[in-house]
Every structure is written in structure tokens, then in C-alpha cells.
């Protein structure tokens, strides 16, 4: 079965600091990879996704992620965080060889950005 | 922009009562999901639905749970006899196709509180 792990439970940064959130998954086949963000009291929103091609993907709000197949990783990065980035971040994996396959979410990383 | 809508946003129910959570997926989407998130925990898959039947379900989705697409637009999750541990945020999601280049769109969630 697939599983997704995220390296940090809670990350606290000051504004303008750089961010990297780790995500690793376990599945040997082809996958689609996603990062979702959940702002306080809101629903999950897609930040970015990887399906194929360039392993460095750019998403909304200045976020990017790099897929490293050999490491089964899909780390999220942002060069300079803002207070408004305070949220919960979820990495998710979906097998791309099985139509309708559900998304497996990581446990989430809470990001707190201090003004 | 089309979105997945869920009602109600918050439901309080007594233990043992039946609840129905409602979702209106995006109109041309074919795959539907329910996920839940217990407070402070990760997002967990409950069930996926395609072509008017359940395509996959998790261990959480036991006989107390059922899903239905009663009228071609709504997608409902019913919990027959709620337990305290059913208290969670329930998210509905829909996806246009099951192909490898599609993402899921999530609703804003229904917070279910069982007392």
C-alpha cells in the first residue's frame, strides 16, 4: 500500500525566510504528486502538481516543488515566506496507473510564519 | 470558476443519530470522493464513487457509512448511527476523469460534531 510521510510536523519561520517542506512516498510505480494547502478554517486548495516531464514544477503564490524519483521525494520550496503563508501543507500521492485511484495524503506540516 | 460545494458547513448531532452530508460536485466531473480529517490529524480517504457505484473504500468506511448520487448532481454521505469518533471535517472531492493528468477539487468541508 502507498504511504506518504512528511518530515516536519510544525515549522516556524520568520517572514522572508526560505522554506522547504519534505515529502516522501512509498510506491514503486508511476505516481502523480500534489501539494495542497489548507488555510485556517478553509478547504484544501491545490498548490501545485506533478504528472510528468520537468521534475521542477512551479505552483501558485511562488511555491515550487522538485520530484526526485530516485529518492521518492517531492519537496516543497519557497524562497521567501510571508505571514499569509501560515497554513497546513499536505503532500498527496496518487497512482497514475489506476483510474479513479484515491489520493493518499501525508500527515501534514503546519507552517507558522511570524511577522 | 466552478467549485465543489458542501452543505451544511457545520452539523451538530447526537450520538446514535443519522446524518447526511451533501456535496454538489463540479458538473462535468465523473469521479467523486469523500475524505475526512479528524481535528489535528491527517486527511483520510473514505470512499470513491464512479459510474454510480463505489469503486474503492477504506477500512473506515464500514456498514455505518453509505454514499449515494440520488439525482445526478448531489453526492451524499450518510452515517447511519453516529459515534463520538465520527466527529471530523468531511471533505467531498470530484475529478473530471480518472486519467493521469487530472487533479481533484475539494469542497470547503462539513464539520461534523457528534455529542
List its salient traits:
heterodimer; A: 115 residues; mainly beta; 4-stranded antiparallel beta sheet; B: 115 residues; 7-stranded mixed beta sheet
Task: Describe the protein in words.
The complex is a heterodimer of chains A (115) and B (115). By secondary structure, chain A is mainly beta. Helix content of chain A is 0%, strand content 54%. Chain A contains no helices and 12 strands. Chain A has strands at residues 3-6, 10-14, 19-21, 23-26, 31-38, 44-50, 56-58, 64-68, 73-78, 87-95, 104-105, 109-114. In chain A, the strands form 3 sheets. In chain A, strands 2, 5, 6, 10, 11 and 12 form a 6-stranded mixed sheet that branches. In chain A, strands 3-9-8-7 form a 4-stranded antiparallel sheet, with no helix packed on it. In chain A, strands 1-4 form a two-stranded antiparallel sheet. In chain A, a hairpin with a 4-residue loop joins strand 8 and strand 9 (73-78). Chain A is globular. Chain B is mainly β. Helix content of chain B is 0%, strand content 50%. Chain B is built from no helices and 11 strands. Chain B has strands at 5-7, 10-13, 19-24, 31-37, 43-50, 53-57, 65-68, 75-79, 88-95, 105-106, 110-114. In chain B, strands 2, 4, 5, 6, 9, 10 and 11 form a 7-stranded mixed sheet that branches. Chain B has a 4-stranded antiparallel sheet with strand order 1-3-8-7, with no helix packed on it. In chain B, a hairpin with a 5-residue loop joins strand 4 and strand 5. Chain B is globular and about 40 Å long. The termini of chain B are far apart. The model of chain B has no long low-confidence stretch (mean pLDDT 91).
Amino acid at each position: 500500500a502507498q504511504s506518504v510521510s512528511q518530515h516536519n510536523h510544525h515549522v516556524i519561520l520568520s517572514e522572508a525566510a526560505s522554506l522547504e517542506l519534505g515529502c516522501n512516498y512509498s510506491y514503486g510505480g508511476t505516481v502523480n504528486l500534489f501539494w495542497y494547502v489548507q488555510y485556517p478554517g478553509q478547504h484544501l486548495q491545490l498548490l501545485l502538481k506533478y504528472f510528468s516531464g520537468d521534475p521542477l514544477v512551479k505552483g501558485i503564490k511562488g511555491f515550487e516543488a522538485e520530484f526526485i524519483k530516485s529518492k521518492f521525494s517531492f519537496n516543497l520550496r519557497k524562497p521567501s515566506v510571508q505571514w499569509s503563508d501560515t497554513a497546513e501543507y499536505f503532500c498527496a500521492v496518487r497512482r497514475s496507473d489506476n483510474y479513479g485511484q484515491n489520493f493518499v495524503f501525508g500527515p501534514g506540516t503546519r507552517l507558522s510564519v511570524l511577522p | 470558476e466552478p467549485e465543489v460545494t458542501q452543505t451544511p458547513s457545520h452539523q451538530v448531532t447526537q450520538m446514535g443519530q443519522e446524518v447526511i452530508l451533501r456535496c454538489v460536485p463540479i458538473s462535468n466531473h465523473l469521479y467523486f470522493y469523500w475524505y475526512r480529517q479528524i481535528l489535528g490529524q491527517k486527511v483520510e480517504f473514505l470512499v470513491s464513487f464512479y459510474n454510480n457505484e463505489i469503486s474503492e473504500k477504506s477500512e473506515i468506511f464500514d456498514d455505518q457509512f453509505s454514499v449515494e448520487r440520488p439525482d445526478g448532481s448531489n453526492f451524499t454521505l450518510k452515517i447511519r448511527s453516529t459515534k463520538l469518533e465520527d466527529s471530523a471535517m468531511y471533505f467531498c472531492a470530484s475529478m473530471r476523469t480518472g486519467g493521469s493528468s487530472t487533479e481533484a477539487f475539494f469542497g470547503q468541508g462539513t464539520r461534523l460534531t457528534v455529542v
